[in-house]
Amino acid sequence: MKFLTTTALALVASASFAAACEVTLRSSDTHPDGYPTVEGVKAMAEEVRERTEGRVCIEVFPSAQLGEERDTIEQTQFGVIDMVRASFGTFNDIVPVTQTFSLPYLFRDVNHMHAVMDGPIGEEIGAAFEERDLVVLAFYDGGARSFYNSQRPINGIEDLAGMKIRVIQNDVFVDMMDALGATATPMPYGEVYSAIQTGVIDGAENNFPSYDSSGHAEVAKYYTLDEHLMVPELVAMSKTTWDGLSPEDQEIIREAARNSSTTQRQLWADAEAASRANVEAAGAEIVEGIDKQPFIDAMAPVYEKYATSPESQDLVERIRATE
């Protein structure tokens, strides 16, 4: 007797899934099964299937099965894939307005980010995506990045002075660290643990789940909730696919997507809380309630360099004015 491989079983399951539906939409995510974004789209899929009585189905492919974010975005634009979940950061070259959302300390807190994305500004962003053959269905939470280090608690901007902090290879991040008085040290993520352990760098920056799962809390026990970067994530559909749906199905999918954002955000909050509990139990010291204003004020040269057009400057002001 021959046994089917895992891939073959997946193909058989996929074929069976599609056979039960009149319309099957394929959705891509680079995160693994069980991750909040994956589970958010699954919640959306479940609501769509229930409300259409099994007529419209969304099949979620996690773990980059259909390709990495950049590739799957392009495939979605061309209608090869029906849906994609991706970070705003990946769209910077495709939808230029998304670049503004990579500016440090743009959002006051996570509730502010949600208010911005769920309001008129979010609708404007969605319109910009349609010009690139993508229909935005929902905005998800990608978490907040904060500083952690092995040397001392960061209670104020002066505590960052002279520190060597790992950042991703991005000019905005490098300039952010310069403005804060620290030294930006770009390096691959996989090298961060040993680099902190051996003193090559003093720390890094990331969200709680990454700080926990990477083991960085073992070598950098001071974590400061400054939340300098919150980059939204989104779920978008190919405009080609969207235009092929009936108005009734479009409305069902839009409503299910918006409902899924609530589910995804709660799952992300739960993941953050669990990771925070883990690192605190392991001895990490969490610094919160700091005065962010000096950090924000220090970003003036960064905004002058990267928010150069009247449109981006206006967007920044309207985001900051959002309650």
From TrEMBL:
<dbReference type="InterPro" id="IPR038404">
    <property type="entry name" value="TRAP_DctP_sf"/>
</dbReference>
<dbReference type="InterPro" id="IPR004682">
    <property type="entry name" value="TRAP_DctP"/>
</dbReference>
<dbReference type="Pfam" id="PF03480">
    <property type="entry name" value="DctP"/>
</dbReference>
<keyword id="KW-0675">Receptor</keyword>
<keyword id="KW-0732">Signal</keyword>
<dbReference type="GO" id="GO:0030288">
    <property type="term" value="C:outer membrane-bounded periplasmic space"/>
</dbReference>
<dbReference type="GO" id="GO:0030246">
    <property type="term" value="F:carbohydrate binding"/>
</dbReference>
<protein>
    <submittedName>
        <fullName>Tripartite ATP-independent transporter solute receptor, DctP family</fullName>
    </submittedName>
</protein>
<keyword id="KW-0574">Periplasm</keyword>
<dbReference type="InterPro" id="IPR018389">
    <property type="entry name" value="DctP_fam"/>
</dbReference>
<feature type="signal peptide">
    <location>
        <begin position="1"/>
        <end position="18"/>
    </location>
</feature>
<dbReference type="GO" id="GO:0055085">
    <property type="term" value="P:transmembrane transport"/>
</dbReference>
